[in-house]
Structure formats: C-alpha cells, structure tokens
Amino acid sequence: MSFEINESCGVFGIYTREDDVAKLTYYALYALQHRGQESAGIAVSDGRETLMLKDMGMVSQVFSERDLNNLRGHIAIGHVRYSTTGSTFWENAQPVQVPRRGGSVFVAHNGNLINTVELRNALKEEGVRFRSTSDTEVVAVMLARSSQQSIVDAVKEVMPRLTGAYAFVVMTEDRLIGIRDPHGIRPLCVGRYMDGYALSSESAGLDIIGAEYIREVEPGEMAIIDDDGLGFETAVTAAKPSLCIFEYIYFARPDSIMYGTYLYHARKHMGMSLADEAPVEADVVMPIPDTGVPAAIGYSQASGIAFGEGLIKNRYIGRTFIQPTQAIRQLGVRLKLNPLIHDIKGKRLVVVDDSIVRGNTTKEIVKMLRDAGAKEVHMRISSPPDMYPCFYGIDTSIRKELIASSRKVEEIRRFIGADSLHYLSMENLVKATRRPKEDFCTACFDGEYPVPVPDEMMMTKCRLEKGKVGVQ
User: Which of 65, 222, 262, 344 has its C-alpha lying 20 to 30 A from 213's C-alpha?
Assistant: First the structure.
C-alpha cells in the first residue's frame, strides 16, 4: 500500500556538455518522485565551481525555472528523499556537501547503513562536528577525509567500511561516480545521453530525458564518468546478489527495468498467479490504485472476470504542511480514494493490492466499498505476508505493528472485514520475477537478512511483547 510503506530515496546523476544538466536532473527527479516526497536537491559543477539548491518539499515545490537557470555546468546530481535514517528537516536534505582538497564532494544516497552509529562515533572522536543526523553525511565526511588523492581511490578506501544497503551518486568538480553495495540491495543503473552518461535509481529516470539504458551497476561496482567517458571498477568485493524484492512488488515504477525485466510484466504475472491460487466467483476485478493495477489486470485476464477501476485516486494530493481538521482526518482514505458507487453497488468484488502492512488502511478501504454497496469484497495481495521490518532503507514499522507478524491470515481477514483474503505464495512471487530467489532480499517476508543486523537494531525494531525499547 502506498499509504503505509515508503521507499527511502531516489538518486540521479548526469555528465554531458551538450545540454542543460540542471533541467535534465529536474525532469529525472520528477520521474523518481515516487521514491521520496519530503525533500529534493540538485548540485551542479562546471569543472571549477559547484552550486547546490535543496529544500523541503516535492520537486515542483523546490525548484523554479530561475533556480535551474542559475545552476550551470556539465555535471549534476539530484536527490529526492523520504527519511528513514535522520529526522525530517532541512539539514538532512540531500545532496550532502563536504569540502575536500580545495574543492568539494557531493553525495546523494538511497538506502540505509546499519553501522552508522559506530562510524559517526569514531569520526566524532577525531573532532568531526556533524550538521545533520543522516548516514549520508557520515559517508561524505569519510570520503572528504580520505588520505587518497583521487576520489576513485577514496571510494575504494571508504566503501569496505560501510555495512548495509546503499546506492550512491558522488560528484566532485570534474567527476561523477555511482556505487552500489556488495549485495546490490538498492537499485542503480546507467545510460547514455548524447556525448555523456547518466545514473539513475530506476530506468524510468533515464527514459524521461531520452537517455539510452545501458545496464545496471553491479553489486559492489562503481561506474566512473568523466571526460574520458564511462568506466567500471570494483569498489568493494561483491557478495550474494540481494536486490530488494519490494522493488518488483511496489517501490519502483512499473515501466522501469530491473534484472532485464519490465516490472509491469512481473506484476501482471503476480496477478495471474493470484487468480490460479485463489479463484473466486465475482463480477469485477479492481485494483487499489495505482500500484495494484498491473496485478489486477493479470488477475482479470487469468480469471476471465471483468476489470474495472472501482476506486478513483486523487493524484494531486502530495505532501502538505497544512494540518487537516479532525472532521477531515476522520475521512481517512477518502482524501486519496473515492469509490465509483454505480460500478460497485450490488457487485462481488475482487480487490487487488500489493501488500498489507499495518492493516488499518485496508480495513478503511473495505469499509468504504461496503458503504458504497459492494455485495462481497475479496482481497487478493500480490505478495506474501509482510512479517519482518526492513533495516536497509525502507520505512516499515517495528515488527509489533506489522499485522502479519502476530496474526494468521484468517485473523487478518476478520480484522479488515473482507469476505476472503489471500496472499501470493513466495514461490509464485519469485517465479514472476524470472530470477532465482537467491538473487533477492526477501527478509520482510522470511526474516532472512542478507546483511547481519546488529542486536540493538533488531531489538529496537523487532520487539514483540515487552515494548520497552523505543524507535528513533
């Protein structure tokens, strides 16, 4: 559910002397806006000087045409943020800039380090004073303080000290670098644009500017872009590939490519498998917009039950600083969804969604559909039950609040008020990706974390009964 689970960030970088890199980055961040709506930033270099603008809000709120016209150069990096490490305030907006050897290093990050506290404390003992609470600043400081002359060598020195999930874009006055963690948990790809190249969290960020997709940056690899072109080197020894499987289910746009597959096709196959696993007599198959649409289409095609919208999403609701009144707050999901009563009344509905996290939003949706006159509501979820928290850059709750961690499927069905409920099996989820299970991180479903999680973090997020440890 897009209302209950959030990705951490989207990153982008571009190097070209034949076009306006600030505006290209602006449009790419538009394409990646779904990955973060709390802040946005762009930094640009002309080879001698660097300029940066970042602020709280969505891309369209942060940048004006005048701002972009002032960001002149041939290298740029950009970032959209949803906070997972560090609170929501301006100092944590990215990119992060730190002085380095007569210039600066700029870093934008998607993911989450799980040894941030250890690294930060070590730097504090060396006299470093931090301006933010994000793990990105820790990495930027480490790169800036590296004894290596070259930023490429500095990356090779720093990356092995990092534990967790990360996809970085790094910019200096004359170079652009993209890096993925050894497991490749967070995505990053590279494309060709005119005389140069671009880096993006998703291929959709390349598509919007007309860049040609080349390939994904491999786990542990860095892509190096400068006047000599594009090159690849090992930043840190690769480990077992573990791309976050939720990129396939929900996070990434359906028109993005990962592991050589359009995610739209994978999601449609998830819906087709749902129809095979849990058939039901019904009149309409409808999605929870927008992320449930491909799976609902697949369910409709496999079952022969007509596809219909059922719920209309208000696509103009973004992040707001205006607090709703109590009366408006009680409307709940009606702020974002409105039922098509004529198409729902008296109908048996199959409602397809990508996940159920806490269950409260799904409960409200089922009630809304019943209030609109639905005769039956059958929930079909295109992923297995979400039972374990994420430590790698996804804003999931502590385990106690994940409804599937403490309730069986039938108990969840009763809680949300549906006539039936079925989650997609792990086997068919993986089959829809056309890759082996070993290529993914599936920890949110099975608790098998590819990167060992420190006990104190596990205690904080996974507490079930005593509730004595708070969440930062």
Answer: 65
Residue type, 144: A
Of 22-36, 161-175, 229-243, 385-399, where does mean pLDDT reach its minimum? 385-399
Among 305, 335, 330, 331, smallest CA distance to 319 is for 335
Q: For residues 466 and 103, give the distance between their C-alpha atoms in angstroms, rounded to a whole number.
A: 50
Give yes or no: residues 185 and 301 share one domain: no
Model confidence, pTM = 0.91
Taking the C-alpha atoms of residue 403 and residue 267, their distance in angstroms, rounded to an integer, is 23
Calculate Rg over the CA atoms of the chain: 22
| Residue of 11, 23, 222 whose CA lies nearest to 136 | 11
- In the chain, the number of structural domains is 2
Regarding whether 392 and 287 lie in a shared domain, the answer is yes
Catalytic residue among 9, 189, 390, 441: 9
Closest CA to 416 of 399, 404, 426: 404
Are residues 268 and 298 in contact, defined by beta-carbon separation less than 8 angstroms? yes
- pLDDT, tens digit (0-9, with 9 covering 90-100), for 347-361: 999 999 999 988 999
Which single residue is written with the structure tokens 């608790």? 447
Confidence (pLDDT) at 392: 86
Is 111 a member of any domain? yes
Nearest to 193 by CA among 10, 72, 11, 18: 18
Task: Report how far residue 400's alpha carbon sits from residue 276's, in angstroms, rounded to the nearest whole number.
Answer: 32
Segments forming the whole domain that contains residue 420: 265-314+332-434
Q: What distance lies between CA 406 and its chain's CA centroid?
A: 26
103: left (phi > 0), else alpha (psi -120 to 50), else beta?
beta
Q: Residue 122: beta bridge partners?
A: none
Give the tens place of pLDDT for each residue, 413-470.
999 999 999 999 999 999 999 999 999 999 999 999 999 887 666 665 554 433 332 2
pLDDT-above-90 percentage for the chain: 81
Identify the band that residue 8 occupies on the pLDDT scale cut at 50, 70 and 90.
low
Would you state the pLDDT for residue 5?
Answer: 54
Q: CA 308, 312, 316, 321 torsion: positive or negative? A: negative
Q: Which amino acid is at 337?
A: L
State the Cα–Cα distance between residues 229 and 247, nearest whole angstrom. Answer: 30
How far apart CA 375 and CA 419 sit, in angstroms, is 10
Q: Which helix (H) or strand (E) holds 257?
A: strand 257-258
Q: What is the CATH number of the domain that holds 86?
A: 3.60.20.10
Instruction: Indicate if 9 belongs to the active site.
Output: yes
Residues 6+ apart with CB under 8 A from 323: none
By C-alpha distance, which of 173, 200, 192 is closest to 73? 173
pLDDT of 86:
47
